[in-house]
Each structure stands twice: as C-alpha cells, then as structure tokens.
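Customer ticket, subject: "Can you confirm the structure for Sorbosone dehydrogenase family protein?"

Message body: Hello, I'm evaluating your service for our small team and ran a test protein. I'd like someone to confirm that this is what the system normally returns, since I don't have a reference to compare against.
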Amino acid sequence: MKYFNTLYAFSFAALLFCTACNSGAETKDENEQAESTATNDNPSEPVDESLAKIKLPDGFKIEYYAKDVENARSMALSPSGVLFVGTRSNDKVFAIVDKDKDGKADETITIATGLKSPNGVALKDGDLYVAEISRIIKFPAIEQNMRNNPKYEVVYDKYPSDEHHGWKYIAFGPDGKLYVPVGAPCNVCKEENPVYATITRLNADGTGMEIFAEGVRNSVGFTWHPNTKELWFTDNGRDMLGDNMPPDELNRAPKKGLHFGFPYCHAGEIADPEFGKDRKCDEFVKPVQKLGPHVASLGLKFYTGNMFPEQYKNQIIIAEHGSWNRSEPLGYRLMKVELDGRGNAVSYEPFAEGWLQGREAWGRPVDVIVMPDGALLVSDDYNNAIYRISYNK
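Agent reply: Thanks for trying us out. I re-ran your input and got the following:
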C-alpha cells in the first residue's frame, strides 16, 4: 500500500510538470506567432535602413528591388517579368531578372555597351527598342538573346544629334506606333527645323515619322490614360527666370496637331521675355496641372494595379528628378496627381519623399512602372537603384 501511494504521488507530480511544460510551449508558440503577425502588419517599416528616410502614406513600404544598377533611368517590363533599364550618362542597357518572383532582383545583365545615352527603352512583339541621341535601334527577340551579346538593328537614324535635351524617353502607344520626343537644343530658342521641341511618332519598322505634338520644350516621360487612351506627358520648364518661374507641366494631348506653347508661352500663362511678343498664350493648350518649378518632372504612370487602395486607381504618379540650379532645391520625390471623372486635376501632393535631406540629395527618382502584382517600381540614376513600393492593409 505504501508503495502504491508513493507511485501515485510520483505519477501525479509528473503529470503536473508535463502540463506546465506544454502550457509554456503553447504560450511561447502563441507569442512567436503574435510577434510574426505584428511584423507583417507593419508594412511601412523599410527592410533596408537607407530607406528609413523615405516618407510614404500609411500602409506603404519601400524596399530595394535591385542595387548597383548604374545610372538607372527609363524602364520597360516584358510580359514574363524581365525589367529592361536604359541609362543616360552611361553607355549601357540592362536586363534585371527576378527569377523566383519574390519582389527582389536576382540578376542584372548588361545586354549592350558602347551606346550614346541609351535613355529610352520600349518593348514590342518580343523586340527591345532603345533610343540613343539621334537614332532608334532594335534588339530582336531580346529575351532569347540577352545573355549572348545580342546584336541590334537600326530602325531610324534621322533625329538631331544635339546632346542638349537630346536623351529620349520612348514608348509604344495604343495605336502601335513608337512615340519619341525631341527636346529643344537650348534653354529657350526658336529653331528652323520643326522637329525640335516636339513629340514625334513612327511605325515600328521606322517608317512614317511625323510630329504628333508641338511646343514641348523637353518631355522625358509620357503615358496613356487606361480608359480614354489619350497621351499624357510631363514637360520641363525653361530656366533663368528665377526660382519660381515657370513651373513644370503635366499635359494631355487627346489628338495630333496640338501646340503646348514653347518657346512663346510657359505653363499656359507666362509669356517668354524674348519670344512672347510673337504669339499670345491663349493660342496654346494649357497644362492640366502646373507642377513644381524646376523640379525636373520625368517619368509618370497611371496606377492601374489592384494592390494600392481604391483611391489610387487610375491616378497619376510622377517622378520628380529634382532641381539643378534652384537656390532652394526642390523635387527629388514622387508626386500624386488626382483626377476627377472628367480628367481634370484636383490635387497635386507628395506620395514618396525623403531623397532630399535639407539641401543634400542622396537619390533622384527617374521613372515609374506598375508591376503585375500592383507594386510600383521606381528607378534612381543617382543612387543606382530600383525601388519597389508595395502596400499591405
């Protein structure tokens, strides 16, 4: 009997000990799960410390998609997810591959070197089109050849060779034509050659080049409205009229043949001191939205993804590269332009900022692109990077 009581007591103590152990294990697992959930529910915390300076709306997060992409400028995304990136001060074109589709690049391939400011890139039917200063070239079947020193064909080589505002953004429009801007070869001037200060377009085979829009001083970014298919573009205002004049412009061109004022009129209402006497501002198309003065507004896209909150749908995100000669630097940010149902701009406000710290910039956004998952990619030619901006409720 004494033996039975001793055995019973020992068994009961062991049972209590195991119960306590299991309870502790369950508590630990619950705590670990809670910590994991708390981390996932805080998407605004950047993964990389260098991005902690970037301010975004609540729920948004910015990460590096790719680093060490020297002078990353314009971007084009293939249906399979390969990101092609042009450069301006470099002579290279890159292909960036996210093999496992985890939102971070796994490989950066240099597909071309020795080019002259190959700023613009565009894709059509598997071919990569690249804009240099005076010509458009094409790399056929680029994804099959991008690792093998691909050869290019010259599509069109009759654009001016001026390097001043000579770098180009290019994109294919809904009409299947390639749109190519030709900047003014000066701060402000009136050239005899009508192709200057325009946006042109041509067929994919290089034929049929024509002027689509006039009076465009220097556009380095355009896109098309997802519903109306109208062309929207940024335009950089002239310099040497002071810190606050004129503002950059966001313009809309619903048809061919419109004139947007340069060199006679700036931002729809400021007569040029030299050329303004020749024509009046009311003769020209006014901007949809005046942007910041000298902010160097470049790439823009309508947000067409499903990741961001509903209020972002079909609204415009603009990359502002940043001023170069303003006494107080301005720009170095992403801006959001909100439109109403009639296509009128109703607000212009920061979306992402912090690349400018005081008077010193550590990054300069250039172009934006919407990914299939709804995230936004942003190129930066100063920090040599591609960022990924995502949202999680």
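A couple of notes from the result: The first strand starts at residue 60 and ends at 67. Confidence is low (pLDDT under 50) at residues 1-45. Feel free to reply with more questions.
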